[in-house]
Every structure is written in structure tokens, then in C-alpha cells.
Amino acid sequence: MNKWLLALICSIALFTATAVYASDPFQIGRQVKVNGKVLDTQVEVTSDGTTMTSTRAIAEALGAEVNWNEALNTVEIRSTEDNRMSYAKYVSSLLHGTYSLNMEIMGENLGVHADTTVVFSDGYVDVPDNTDFQKLFLLLLADQMGDLPLSNKRIEFWSNKELAQAYVSGDYRVDGLEGWSGLNARFGLLTNEGGSQSLSHILSVHERDNVSIGKYKPQ
């Protein structure tokens, strides 16, 4: 009889503790600011003063990399210093010719894309899968375009020569819900509108990032 009574008391205690935890009030609407920039992330503060927010949002705002280690059930954060060293090594290797900056003009004045010049680069595929690295590589390519006598308003950079040739010739067909999959070989776009030039890093058919260079002026 005592065992049943003890079990009942433990069950009531567990239920009560759970109910109290679940009913803890949260203070919604607070913000996290890192180096003067407000992060787009939710902040919750429990009644005991514990602040909960996204580890990834804060770490990435500080320039760190965040990864989930499934085997260890652990969030792993790579420090800013490690990232800076990695970037410094990449810049050094890029400037010392580790990555090819060779380009080949595949075609100009293309049918329905009459204002576009297609350029193939054989070095982009060797750049590490890091958008900062890829943007710097693209910036150096765009800088070289200033030496070429091109009049078109749009210059597209491609990483696959065969797909670039197919695009220029028009010898391709829709093969997916988003159109022709070969368009994913485009990685950069340099435009010239009214004397003002801008550069974009193409991430996918529907997504691109501006490379913050202001008014691009080839040297």
C-alpha cells in the first residue's frame, strides 16, 4: 500500500513540475544586437531570467561557422580567428595563381538575349564552397573584363563550358520545373546601366547576392 502511495505522490509531483515549467511566462519582443546590427532572430526570456535565442544567428554574426555534429549530438562553432586565417590563406593562394582566372568569351548578341555576353571561367569550380571566397574570385574576374572591348549591357559568367555553349547556340530544352537545369552553371552577372556598373553573385536560378563594390570602375 505504501508503494502505491509513493508512486502516486511522485506522479503528482512530476505533473506539477511539468505544468509549472510549461506555464513559465516568456518575454517576447526583445532583440539581439551584434556590432551595431540587430539580428533577425527571436529572443525569449523566462521568468527566472534565462535568455534563449539562436546560437547560429549570434555565431554567424560574429563571423563564426556553425555546424551540427549528428554523431556527437553537438553544436560545433568555429571561431572567427580560424575563419580569418582561412580567408587570409585563400586570398594569398588566389593572388599567387592557385586558382585559374582564365576566361573565354563564348558568344555575344545572343538571339533573345541580344544584350548579353557569355563568358566561361575554368577556375570557379575549384574555389572552395564558401560564398565569400566565391565573391572575391568573381570580383577579380569582373576586374579583368575592363580590358575587353565589350559593348553589351550584361556579362554572364559560367563555370561549365559545354552548358555555356548550349546556352549561346540555343541548343537546350526545359528539363525541370524551373526550366533548363543548365542555368545553374551561371555564377556571376556584371551589368552596365547608364554608366553605373554592378556585380551579382548568382547562387541559383532564383537567388543572387550583390557584391558590395559600389560603382564598379575597371582599372
Radius of gyration: 26 Å
Strand order of the largest sheet: 7-8-9-10-11-12
Total DSSP E strands: 12
Using the alpha-carbon principal axes, give the shape.
Answer: elongated
The average pLDDT is 76
Structural class comes to: alpha+beta
Nutshell version of this structure?
Helices cover 31% and strands 28% of the residues. By secondary structure, it is an alpha+beta fold.
Give your account of this protein's structure.
The chain is of the alpha+beta class and 219 residues long. It contains 5 helices and 12 strands. The strands form 4 sheets. A 6-stranded mixed β-sheet has the order 7-8-9-10-11-12, sandwiched between helices. Strand 8, helix 4 and strand 9 form a beta-alpha-beta unit. The longest helix has 21 residues. The N terminus and C terminus are likely disordered.
Summarize the topology.
Layout: H1 2-22, E1 33-34, E2 37-38, E3 44-45, E4 51-52, H2 55-61, E5 65-69, E6 74-78, H3 80-95, E7 103-110, E8 113-121, H4 131-144, E9 154-158, H5 161-169, E10 186-193, E11 196-204, E12 207-210
Parallel strand pairs: 8-9
Antiparallel strand pairs: 1-2, 3-4, 5-6, 7-8, 9-10, 10-11, 11-12
Which properties best describe this structure?
disordered N terminus; alpha+beta; 28% strand; two-stranded antiparallel ribbon
